[in-house]
Every structure is written in C-alpha cells, then in structure tokens.
Design brief:
Length: 452
C-alpha cells in the first residue's frame, strides 16, 4: 500500500544520505528495473514500477546513470502485487513478481514495439496477441547452484542472489513444477551427507512428459558410498539421476538400465520429440506448444513447398513444418542436436520430408544459402546474438515468408531493419511470447513477407 516500506534486496549499499531522494518512475528497463530521473541523471531503481513515486537509495554510481534500491513507495501502481515467493527479495531467478502477471505481458509487448521502432526503424502492420500460459510451476529446465558450507554443517541448493555469487538459502521455488520445488530440501540433505559434497557445484533439472532428471555436475569421481545414497534418493523420490564429470557430452545416467527417456509432445502435430538431459529445449512446454502452432500458421505451408529451419536444434519447428507437407532442411551448428533431430524425424515417420545440415550460421551464410537453393519459406530461431549475417546474405528474391522467433527484442529489431530496409520485406506482424513469466526476458515472434 502507499507509504509502505519495501524490503530491499540484500546488496552492498553505499551509506545513505540523511534523506532518501524521491522520484517518479517513468518506465521499466529491459532488466525489469524502474527508470527514473533524479539530479539530472537516470536512476535504475530495483523493484519500482512505472507511474509510482518512490524513495530509493543509490548503491552504485556511474558517469551516466545510477543504480538504486527501492526503500519506500509513496504512490503505488495499481499493478503492484505481493510477490508469491518468500525468497523473491533476494533470489535472482525472478525480477517481476511484484508486477501483476497480465501487466508483465503488456510491459514486454511495449518493450518489443519500442525496440523495433528505435533500433530497426520499423513498425509491424499487425500486433499479434501475446502468447502466454501458466504463470507458476512452468519452468521445466533449470540450473540450480550448489554450495557445501562445511563450517556451518550444511549445503545450499538454489538460485544465486541478485547481482551476487551467493546462493539463496531457499527451500522452495514457485516457478519450478511443485514436485521439483519440493525436492530442494531433500537435495540439501542428500548432498550434505555425501563424501563428495564440496565437489558438486550445480544440478541441472530436466522435466519431461514422463520423467524427471537431475544431472549432478561432479568434479571428482564419486565413491561407492555416495553412489548408494544417490540410488536410494532416486528410488525414494522417483527421479532419474545423471552424472556429468566433464563437458555436456560426458553426461550419463547413474543407472543406465532404469533410466527413462526424456521427451515432450506436440499433440497438434502428432509428434514426440526426444531430447537428452543437456540438450537445449524451451523451458516452458505449454507455451512452446502454442508458439509452434502460431509459427506454423504464419508460414502458411502446403504440400510441395521447400522450407528451411535455421538454428533448428532438435527439430522443434522442423518436424511440424514437415508434418504440414513441406520439404524442409534443418540447419544448426551442433552436430549432437542434429543427430537428435534426425532420430526424431525417423521415429515420427518424417525422414522422407526432413533432412539436416551442420553449418555455422554466423559465418559464411552466402555459401549455405547457395547450397540450400530456392526456398519458399524460412523459419529463423537464433540465440540472443540474432541472425545478422544470415539476413544480410539473403537476396531480394528470398523466401516469400520468413518467421523469426527471437529471444532478444534488440537483435530482432536490428535484423528486422535489414529485412525491411535492405531486402524488400514487409514486417507484417509481431508479438511477444511470455516464455519466462516473472522475469524481464522477452521472447517474440515476427512475420516478414516479401514484396511481390
């Protein structure tokens, strides 16, 4: 409520002045902080919302801006809510739990529009309705940090604090599936009792449709006594445990015989996609199903069309494209993921419509495009760096329709500028995908069509 004190995140703070300054919050930055002006400088205020008048305390001063913690809300936004998670004020896993979930979606949509206009100098002809799904318990991939505190006789398992390397002393997580959240306490007890407790720095969580996998990163070989305890934990809690002694390709199940396969389904396309515990997949399966449906609809596929899925991974978009009748080539830089994609194509009866090529999409895209030949449709789903070299290499007679799925509105906007201003495309539609509720992360999708 107005005038109420807001607990500040546990951070190193400079000595406060006699009176905390107050300012009106103008907007949200892309990391979720409130943007205000005070003393002629921009101030990024942790936990402040647009429209609010707040008091704050600076903890870092830069030449062009300051960073601050919120100390008091003098005039409160109607979209402010009480964070659901008891660890929210310290945990770095979420940054927007104090903002009503539907308002989070609106803020992300504005962020996408602002980036397109400011960076790409483009505006979509149509704004797509936002894609969103469950706000809680949605995260089916996560990396939990582990620290054994020997002198205190215990182990911490969880996410790191905001802007700090310390691990939050947590016993639950509201964005993890409830059954995984409930394992945080038992995992602390398990690792505390292991002889190798100090040599386990992280746990990767992978939740699939019918199996849950915990992958322990281990820096030394496990003694037999630890193996016995891990097997007992696996049996008691119904989770499969994998070990990773080196890089991702060193991951292997603790019990190869009892280990269950990881997969997710795309029911609308009658597809089952298998993946490994260290493979990249979307963290939110429910939202991913809607995203794939929209991408395929925007491509307007039909039998006989030739399509390319660039940065295809294990075939999340490639196989739905093939299921709709197109001949599709999936391209990615990871041979391991392409092997998985090819296996998925075969197991789903689509090997005759989908083929896969290994290529570095950040280097020599003209050579790749020449190799692919004429394309009617293209889907691009790059990492945060975007696909700048790729869109620059496109000819003005490129694919008639391009669907671009992005995890960075800034690089999408940059690439959209190239497609519209240099390559003769129209930005027909764009909208956000709320893949990561309660975080400032903005996923989006855009449709480009070529002028005829």
């Amino acid at each position: 409520m107005p005038g109420s004190a807001i607990p500040a995140p546990a951070l190193a703070i400079v000595s406060p002045p006699a009176e905390a300054p107050a300012a009106q919050v103008l907007s949200l930055a892309q990391d979720g902080r409130g943007v205000a002006r005070s003393g002629g400088k921009v101030v990024f205020v942790e936990g402040a919302l647009p429209g609010e008048v707040v008091e704050f305390r600076r903890f870092r001063r830069k030449p062009n801006f300051d960073l601050a913690n919120l100390t008091r809300v003098l005039r409160e936004s109607s979209a402010r809510v009480v964070p659901r998670c008891p660890h929210y004020e310290r945990c770095g896993g979420c940054s927007l739990q104090h903002l009503e979930p539907r308002a989070q979606v609106a803020v992300k949509q504005r962020a996408l529009e602002d980036n397109l206009a400011r960076i790409g100098k483009v505006q979509p002809e149509t704004l797509l309705s936002p894609i969103h799904g469950p706000y809680w318990g949605y995260r089916q991939r996560a990396r939990l940090s582990v620290r054994h505190v020997g002198q205190k006789g215990g182990t911490l398992v969880g996410f790191r604090e905001r802007r700090a390397h310390r691990i939050v002393d947590m016993d639950s997580c509201e964005v993890l599936p409830p059954r995984i959240s409930a394992l945080i306490g038992p995992l602390r007890e398990l690792i505390s009792g292991l002889a190798l407790a100090s040599r386990i720095p992280q746990i990767e969580v992978a939740v699939s449709d019918e199996a849950d996998v915990l992958t322990l990163r281990i820096l030394d070989p496990l003694p037999d006594t630890d193996m016995v305890q891990l097997r007992a934990f696996s049996t008691r809690y119904g989770v499969d445990i994998h070990l990773q002694p080196g890089g991702p390709d060193s991951t292997h199940p603790l019990d190869a015989v009892a280990s269950r396969p990881l997969f997710y389904r795309l029911p609308e396309f009658d597809l089952t996609l298998h993946f490994g515990p260290s493979d990249f997949t979307q963290v939110n399966f429910a939202v991913n199903r809607v995203l794939v449906r929209r991408a395929i609809a925007l491509l307007e596929l039909r039998d006989g069309l030739r399509a390319a899925d660039l940065f295809c991974g294990l075939g999340n978009f490639t196989l739905p494209i093939a299921r709709r009748g197109a001949l599709v080539v999936g391209v990615d830089g990871s041979v391991e993921l392409l092997t998985r994609a090819d296996e998925n194509a075969r197991s789903n009866g689509l090997a005759h419509r989908a083929q896969f090529i290994a290529a570095n999409l950040f280097e020599a895209p003209p050579t790749l495009l020449a190799r692919l030949g004429r394309l009617d449709r293209m889907l691009i789903d790059p990492p945060r760096d975007g696909a700048h070299a790729l869109v620059q290499a496109l000819d003005r007679d490129g694919p008639e329709r391009i669907v671009y799925v992005s995890c960075s509105p800034a690089t999408l906007a940059r690439d959209a500028g190239v497609l519209v201003h240099d390559k003769g495309y129209r930005l027909c539609a764009a909208g956000i995908v709320n893949m990561f509720p309660h975080t400032a992360h903005v996923e989006s999708i855009a449709l480009f069509t070529r002028h005829k």
